[in-house]
């Protein structure tokens, strides 16, 4: 990755004079997750970091910067968000310059913090090699299995290379090989009765603090400041602390992103309570795939299925029942 | 006379459970991969390593508190008249908050100045405060994001606590801080600390010395205020902010709330819920005008409130206790320490420039 970062910096320096800004990652206050960097001057380029700590999907900033010429650095999954934003005409292709990378897996900062213990001694570097992640702490490498330290979305990565881009930096490659992964929350839920599923979600939602980081971090949550969760009229969700109210919001979020969600995992990464809320979107995405043979974020020229109306849907046989 | 006591590691959980028979015991327990303050029972997995993921503030300022309940009914004999019955819902349970860190406990002193501020007493908060014994647990392993020492606190401080627990070899030294802490402990079957008190003091001293360094973040009221109209500064600082409420809701000192009536048929409740100044709705006026329309203005308010407006009103005390949860859990890794430091540098640079 060392050469990738040098090539990335070189490409960004070349492009910067024609752009208002470039969004990349830099070292942040948390040794386990890098933070967004908004580059406007060449000197900022030297602060760019590129390693498995670049977990955040930066695509979510683009709709808010519409009208500006913006460069953006993306991993494979981030690029799928970009594709969806293009499909929905929330961003303009000619205004966005995409620097694509091959991702070896993105660190789940919370899980890694737990696995590594105290980081007071500092953390010099993080890398993924084959089936393990290596954390260099005070010169001592600590090697941990990927299943313990990567984000769950990486376990089922469908493409680690940014497929839509203007500049691809470094070598193309395969998704991380994550072995011995625990059962996904979706698989666990499918083995449960309806009553058990409701109980599961009530238990999870009892911890929700209603900070709405899930929504704010979602690159496809377009309503943002005008969200149904806080609307009094209509009164979809009340403000009491009942888990079912909070689950109702998650249901609204999942339905609003059905067929649009690219499973970038930002909702779960942002949740300070660690709630497995992407599961709801995954369940809907499965239905979308079954009904429409469609996966969000794969083809910029395709229209999302719920954006279109057809008198006859190929897989929905309403008249043959 | 305040007497220090001692409890062995293996006696701690049974003692807390015995307390739970007569009062609510709130303690940091493992819940779904997180460590959160929750009512303790025999099945709870107590977690006293490091800082809990959320602060202990809900013990005194619940996420959602019912202020009153009401019921509409048709007037007797006069069908056109609607009668309204209102029922008071003051907290009535004694509580014991165990394992709050000194920063969490200090956060309560930030609330006290607001909710118990002389002429303005919030009866819900004050009732809970009176009914809750706060037993803090001195820190032994501060995280890389801890900075209590830069905002007027310390890993073994007692501000806001009634009792302080300090981990020592084999157990905990328990020191009363307030008279009511002493009165509470006097009724408990605990042995005296005797020689272990010195060990506890040494533990606190060693941990205080091991804290990460850095300049104090207090005393910047004037500097932060001078940047009030500096759009470029706040725009730059807030560029990556997502405008979510994770920082406020995990913060031990953020005390802003919203009030709503939630009505179901003829019955309703008036609830007070946490609110946060990073939300667009926080200052949205009925006319549709929003004086803090963008995230830059909201970030200015968050930093301004904690490091300028609050200390200006409350004798220089900051509305930040340095727990670092807003840093650890921020989805974009905002660093409040860096923002205050940058604000101070920029204000000083501007002033020097003005004097040129």
UniProtKB/TrEMBL annotation, chain A:
Q: Which Pfam families match?
A: Fer4_8 (PF13183), FrhB_FdhB_C (PF04432)
GO molecular function annotation: iron-sulfur cluster binding; metal ion binding
**Could you tell me the keywords of this UniProt record?**
Iron, Iron-sulfur, Metal-binding
Endoplasmic reticulum recorded as keyword:
no
What Gene3D superfamilies would the database entry show? Alpha-helical ferredoxin (1.10.1060.10)
Which region is the signal sequence?
A: none
Q: Which residues form the 4Fe-4S ferredoxin-type domain?
A: 198-219, 252-281
Q: Does the keyword Methyltransferase apply?
A: no
Q: What is this protein called?
A: Succinate dehydrogenase/fumarate reductase iron-sulfur subunit
Question: What is the species listed in this Swiss-Prot or TrEMBL entry?
Answer: Pseudodesulfovibrio hydrargyri
TrEMBL record, chain B:
Name the UniProt key words of this record, in alphabetical order.
Answer: Iron, Iron-sulfur, Metal-binding
SUPFAM superfamilies found in the cross-reference section: alpha-helical ferredoxin
Domain (4Fe-4S ferredoxin-type): give its ranges. Answer: 238-262, 309-342
The protein's superkingdom reads Bacteria
Asked if the keyword Signal belongs to this entry, the reply reads: no
UniProt KW Metal-binding keyword: yes
UniProt-recorded Gene Ontology molecular function terms:
iron-sulfur cluster binding; metal ion binding
Q: Which Pfam families match?
A: Fer4_22
Output the PANTHER family linked to this UniProt entry.
ANAEROBIC SULFITE REDUCTASE SUBUNIT A (PTHR40447)
Q: What is this protein called?
A: Anaerobic sulfite reductase subunit A
Q: What gene is this protein translated from?
A: asrA_2
């Amino acid at each position: 990755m060392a050469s990738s970062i040098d090539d990335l910096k070189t490409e960004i320096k070349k492009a910067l004079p024609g752009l208002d800004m470039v969004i990349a990652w830099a070292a942040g206050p948390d040794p386990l997750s890098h933070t967004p960097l908004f580059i406007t001057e060449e000197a900022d380029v030297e602060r760019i970091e590129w390693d498995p700590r670049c977990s955040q999907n930066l695509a979510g900033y683009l709709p808010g910067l519409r009208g500006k010429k913006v460069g953006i650095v993306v991993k494979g999954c981030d690029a799928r968000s970009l594709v969806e934003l293009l499909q929905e005409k929330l961003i303009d292709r000619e205004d966005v310059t995409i620097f694509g990378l091959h991702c070896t897996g993105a660190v789940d900062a919370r899980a890694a913090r737990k696995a590594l213990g105290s980081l007071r001694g500092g953390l010099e570097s993080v890398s993924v090699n084959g089936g393990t992640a290596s954390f260099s702490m005070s010169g001592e490498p600590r090697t941990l299995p990927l299943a313990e330290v990567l984000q769950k979305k990486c376990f089922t990565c469908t493409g680690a290379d940014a497929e839509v881009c203007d500049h691809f930096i470094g070598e193309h490659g395969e998704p991380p090989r994550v072995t011995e992964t625990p059962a996904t929350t979706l698989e666990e839920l499918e083995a449960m009765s309806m009553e058990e599923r409701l109980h599961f979600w009530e238990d999870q939602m009892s911890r929700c603090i209603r900070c709405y980081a899930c929504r704010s971090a979602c690159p496809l949550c377009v309503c943002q400041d005008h969200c149904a969760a806080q609307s009094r009229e209509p009164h979809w969700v009340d403000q009491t602390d009942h888990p079912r109210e909070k689950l109702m919001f998650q249901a609204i979020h999942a339905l609003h992103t059905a067929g649009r969600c690219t499973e970038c995992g930002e909702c779960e990464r942002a949740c300070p309570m660690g709630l497995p809320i992407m599961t709801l979107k995954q369940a809907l995405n499965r239905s979308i795939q079954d009904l429409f043979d469609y996966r969000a974020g794969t083809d910029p020229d395709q229209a999302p299925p719920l954006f279109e109306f057809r008198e006859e849907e190929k897989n929905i046989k309403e008249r043959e029942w | 006379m305040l007497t220090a006591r001692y409890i062995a590691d293996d006696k701690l959980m049974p003692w807390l459970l015995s307390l739970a028979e007569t009062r609510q015991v709130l303690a940091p327990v493992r819940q779904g991969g997180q460590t959160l303050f929750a009512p303790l029972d025999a099945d709870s997995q107590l977690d006293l390593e490091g800082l809990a993921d959320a602060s202990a503030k809900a013990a005194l300022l619940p996420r959602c508190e019912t202020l009153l309940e009401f019921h509409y009914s048709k007037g007797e004999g006069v069908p056109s008249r609607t009668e309204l019955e209102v029922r008071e819902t003051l907290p009535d349970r004694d509580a014991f908050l165990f394992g709050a860190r000194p920063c969490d406990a200090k956060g309560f002193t930030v609330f006290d100045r607001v909710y118990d501020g002389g002429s303005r007493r919030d009866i819900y908060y004050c009732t809970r405060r009176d009914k809750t014994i706060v037993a803090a647990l001195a820190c032994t392993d501060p995280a890389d994001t801890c900075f209590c020492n830069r905002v007027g606190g310390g890993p073994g401080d007692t501000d806001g606590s009634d009792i302080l627990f300090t981990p020592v070899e084999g157990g905990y030294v328990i020191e009363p801080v307030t008279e009511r802490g002493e009165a509470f402990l006097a009724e408990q079957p605990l042995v005296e600390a005797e020689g272990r008190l010195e060990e506890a003091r040494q533990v606190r001293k060693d941990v205080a010395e091991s804290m990460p360094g850095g300049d104090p973040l207090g005393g910047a009221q004037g500097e932060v205020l001078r940047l009030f109209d500096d759009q470029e500064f706040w725009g730059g600082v807030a560029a990556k902010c997502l405008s979510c409420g994770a920082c406020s809701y995990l913060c031990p000192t953020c005390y802003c709330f919203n009030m709503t009536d939630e009505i179901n048929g003829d019955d309703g409740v008036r609830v007070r819920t946490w609110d946060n100044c990073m939300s667009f709705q926080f200052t949205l006026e009925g006319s549709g005008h929003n004086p803090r329309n963008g995230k830059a203005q909201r970030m200015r308010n968050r930093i301004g409130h904690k490091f300028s407006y609050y200390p200006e009103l409350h004798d220089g005390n900051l509305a930040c206790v340095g727990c670092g949860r807003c840093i650890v859990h921020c989805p974009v890794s905002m660093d409040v320490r860096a923002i205050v430091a940058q604000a101070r540098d920029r204000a000083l640079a501007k002033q020097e420039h003005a004097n040129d």
